[in-house]
Amino acid sequence: MRSLQRSSGTKQDAMQSIIMKILQGNTNKSRIADALLPQLSPEQEADILLLSEPYREKDCRTWLSSTRKNAAIWIPNLRQARVEQHGAEEHYVWARIDGITYVSCYFSPNDSISEFEVKLGMLEDHFRDTTQELVIAGDFNARALEWGMPQTNKRGQLILEMAARMDLMVLNIGNTPTYRRPGFGNSIPDLSLASENIAAITEEWRVIEDYTGSDHQYITFKIGREMRNRTDPRNKIPHRWNYRKFDDVKFAEKLLSGIGDIPETSQIVKRRVDAEDVVSSTMKILKCACDSSMPIIKRFINRKSAYWWTEEIAELRRNCLKLRRKAQRARRGAKGIDYSSEHKSVRKELRIAIKKSRFHCWKALCDEVNADPWGLGYKIATQKLGVLGSVGTMTVKEMQKVVDELFPTHPLRTDSESEIDDSNIPAFSMGELEVAVSSLKNRKTPGPDGIPAEILKEKLKIAPRLLLKMYNTCLSAGILSARWKRASLVLIDKGKGAINASSRYRPICLLDSAGKTLENLIKPRLLAAIEKASNFSERQYGFIVIW
Fold it and tell me: Ranges for the Endonuclease/exonuclease/phosphatase domain (predicted)?
């Protein structure tokens, strides 16, 4: 079972151990900006999106909005960013994610100074006494020298006074404008603020130059300087190899060259230690052969392009960006008018292309559902229902509690090793091994060692004696190796009940293929012994435990 330990160390160490990529921006209620957002998010590898003036609410459980729908927080993948608590007010929404409170807000330029001051005061009153670290981001429509504007206005002064009282620091760097609209000039209304500890571990704050479809350019920054803490349970997932790029020649070479590293043993092994050494050495050779013959699958969570994304749409987006830049540089001259007109025309083409692509992809999805009811359509539907994501919303302590309830601990057995009379126990034959290995199903998720069943089948072709020796060693010692008693635990959400209740989840334990093979070797012998002993009683009902 996958270890679920809590990370140790100071609060500062805990924050540095987590890297979060933030994407901040104002979509300006633009349909194109809303359509491009699912594509920009994976391109920028964003874990959390802090948005102002969203076009509309997304129909998903990872979208949080203010009560007036003018600010939003979008977490594309709850397994990557765990929401502990959240709330909303008229002009801002907040979420506590991995111990840090993120606030997305929007202050309209149409508000008077007195209205702005009242709204800013509400924001300050809510978070002034919080003990959590803060990140506040949004469109404040204010000017100040501290974030690159040539002068400070009344709004900017009020924000700086609030930041001083709350020990917040301005994260903005340089004077790159975030508001760019041909014919209307440039400005920096988008502001990022953070508490002192967060500012100390914030890196790579910048204004991206990608075409967003909005009058605003988006901001990205990263919180954290180190890789995730190794004691974080989300990082205990074993790596896996890409079997589709399997090189059988390299696999055979590495496998055959490592056979000499297996310790020599007598034909009959009595001690557990000796058997474990043989198993460990054999599996180590197998892993080395996998490393040399297959690339490891890189784990990019939520890094796929939008399902409707095409090269044609990408080219149109590049053209939009190019023409908008030309229109901005030409300003109000005759060329500027021409470029603005061209930009509007290409922007319209982009909107139509996205709409057409979405329509065709939806039609293809409907056709696929008829052919394969458990395919992509099923995955999308379950995600909409929130069936696949709520495990990520639990804290480590809550997750540990659920696991403890599902798998209660028992006193450890302290049986001493005893001599086994193996004079009447025949060793496994090559035929038995071939049947056991062939019964393993392909394209199944492997256990903690990450070795797929297909690799054991390849190993059987190249070095059958190597596998046979390992299993016969286990048989003569009367053991199931300790490494095969571990499993990767997956909790499947049933979609009902409290999130931290154990009854809400259906546990699945993923076992190593090598351990399954030993079980497949022993199973027919157990069944034969049971049949020889007059089989089961007629009163035997229900499941029969044979291992």
Answer: 101-219
231, part of any domain: no
Using an 8 Å Cβ cutoff, are 281 and 289 in contact? no
Q: Are residues 175 and 280 in the same domain?
A: no
pLDDT tens column, 179-235: 988 767 789 999 999 999 899 899 999 999 988 989 999 999 999 854 444 344 444
Looking up residue 71, the CATH number of its domain turns out to be 3.60.10.10
Q: Do 211 and 317 form a contact (C-beta atoms < 8 A)? A: yes
Number of domains, the chain: 3
| Structural domain range at position 517 | 237-299+388-532
* Nearest in space to 386 (alpha carbons), one of 493, 301, 491, 307: 493
Whose tokens are 């809550």? That residue is 398
| DSSP conformation letters of 355-399 | HHHHHHHHHHHHHHHHH-TTSHHHHHHHHHTTTTTGGGGS-HHHH
Q: How many CB atoms lie within 10 A of CB 81?
A: 26
Q: What's the whole-number average pLDDT of the chain?
A: 82
Q: How confident is the model at residue 83 (pLDDT cuts 50, 70, 90)?
A: confident
pTM above 0.70, yes or no: no
| Tokens matching residue 498 | 């409290």
Contact 431, 443 (CB under 8 A): no
